């Protein structure tokens, strides 16, 4: 799906999972009716929040996938990706992901192959969104999604609280 078609599909989708915080901020800039009751501020995840959480789940699943999976593991991984793509709450995102999976089916022969496949899928989406690519080396992916960076490991040993970036191996200070 092209960037233009994705943008058009986003306009057709009424679900919060298809929305963007940018649209929400525009609504916030509109005048508020006087006397309107205060509402609970918790909202369902929007497209960006859902995407970040989804990539965390996919990358972490791949990072913990068996190094030498049996046939049952490989079937389960393929079904997981198939179900994830079929049930993803953002309809145009799901359609785009299903097409990407058709063009580049999950490689589930090993942890390394599954991790690299997830990274390639993530970078395909990042490219469409104009975002920077993430490094697709197995060692870096394992650090980001399973073992943690050296700084993360030092903090864990000391019992210090970690920032979200540190838990993902993205801050090596």
UniProtKB/TrEMBL annotation:
Q: List the catalysed reactions.
A: 2 R'C(R)SH + O2 = R'C(R)S-S(R)CR' + H2O2
Protein's name according to its UniProt entry:
Sulfhydryl oxidase
What are the names of the required cofactors? FAD
Q: Does the keyword Disulfide bond apply?
A: yes
One CC-aspect GO term? mitochondrion
Among Pfam families, the record links this protein to: Evr1_Alr
- Identify the InterPro entries for this entry: ALR/ERV, ERV/ALR_sulphydryl_oxid_sf, ERV/ALR_sulphydryl_oxidase
Ordered alphabetically, the record's keywords are: Disulfide bond, FAD, Flavoprotein, Oxidoreductase
Q: Where is the ERV/ALR sulfhydryl oxidase domain?
A: 43-145
Q: What is its EC number?
A: 1.8.3.2
Q: Which residue windows are transmembrane per the record?
A: none
Q: Does the keyword Cell inner membrane apply?
A: no
Q: Which GO terms describe its molecular function?
A: flavin adenine dinucleotide binding; flavin-dependent sulfhydryl oxidase activity
Query: According to the lineage, what is the superkingdom?
Result: Eukaryota
């Amino acid at each position: 799906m092209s960037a233009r078609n994705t943008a058009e599909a986003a306009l057709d989708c009424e679900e919060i999972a298809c929305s963007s915080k940018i649209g929400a901020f525009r609504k916030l800039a509109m005048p508020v009716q006087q006397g309107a009751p205060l509402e609970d501020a918790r909202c369902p995840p929007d497209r960006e929040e859902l995407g970040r959480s989804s990539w965390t789940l996919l990358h972490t699943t791949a990072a913990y996938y068996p190094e030498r999976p049996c046939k049952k593991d490989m079937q389960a991984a393929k079904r997981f990706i198939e179900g994830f793509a079929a049930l993803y709450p953002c309809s145009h995102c799901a359609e785009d992901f299903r097409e990407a999976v058709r063009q580049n089916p999950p490689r589930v022969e090993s942890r390394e192959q599954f991790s690299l496949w997830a990274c390639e899928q993530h970078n395909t989406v990042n490219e469409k969104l104009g975002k920077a690519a993430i490094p697709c080396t197995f060692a870096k992916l394992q650090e980001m999604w399973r073992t943690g960076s050296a700084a993360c490991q030092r903090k864990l040993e000391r019992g210090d609280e970690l920032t979200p970036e540190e838990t993902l191996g993205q801050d090596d200070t």
